[in-house]
């Protein structure tokens, strides 16, 4: 049997040097961010994503409020309360997102009217929470403004808390 040549490991210390440190915050404040370029009606795709996310949050507030009034049966008091906490918190999140972005990017966004989602059951509510979480997650990956990314973490936190209550509390 042929002996396989084992590759000699790199010099000591090399491997550890290859590990890149994960930095979530810039070490120093960067120069003032450039406003995103306008690429047509409604601005850049990032502008449109922010506006769409804010519109979704505003719609979600109403959808969760209606579900809060609709839930009945086993475990519904817990769901009623969890949904109340969520829809109470959402308007401020939407406002913070838009004001922060419009200030950071130095532009006013364009808001399209989109129909709000109908939620009939707690399962519908949980599904919608997951969808909003995914929208925010995607937006966070695109945003060059760490302060807005951090604010959006608070929205995800509130969504997680509501989802936990809807899934596990009765
Ligand atoms: Fe109520």
Could you describe the 3D structure shown?
- This protein has 170 residues and is an all-alpha fold.
- The protein has one domain: Ferritin.
- Helix content is 62%, strand content 0%.
- The protein has helices at 14-18, 45-70, 76-105, 122-142, 146-168.
- The termini are far apart.
- 23% of the residues are buried.
- The model has no long low-confidence stretch (mean pLDDT 86).
- Fe (ii) ion (FE2) is lined by residues 68, 84.
Keyphrases for this structure?
170 residues; mainly alpha; Ferritin; elongated; binds fe (ii) ion
Portion of residues in beta strands equals under 5%
Task: Tell me which ligands are bound.
Answer: fe (ii) ion
Number of strands: 0
Largest sheet: none
Which stretches are low in confidence, meaning pLDDT under 50 for 5 or more residues running? none
- Helix/strand order: HHHHH
Helix count, per DSSP? 5
Helix percent reads: 55-70%
The radius of gyration is 22 Å
- Tally of discrete structural domains: 1
Q: Ends: how far apart?
A: 65 Å
CATH topology, by name, is Ferritin
CATH superfamily descriptor: Ferritin, core subunit, four-helix bundle
How would you describe the shape?
A: elongated
Per CATH, the architecture is Up-down Bundle
SSE-based structural type: mainly alpha
**Whole-number average pLDDT?**
86
For the record, the CATH class is: Mainly Alpha
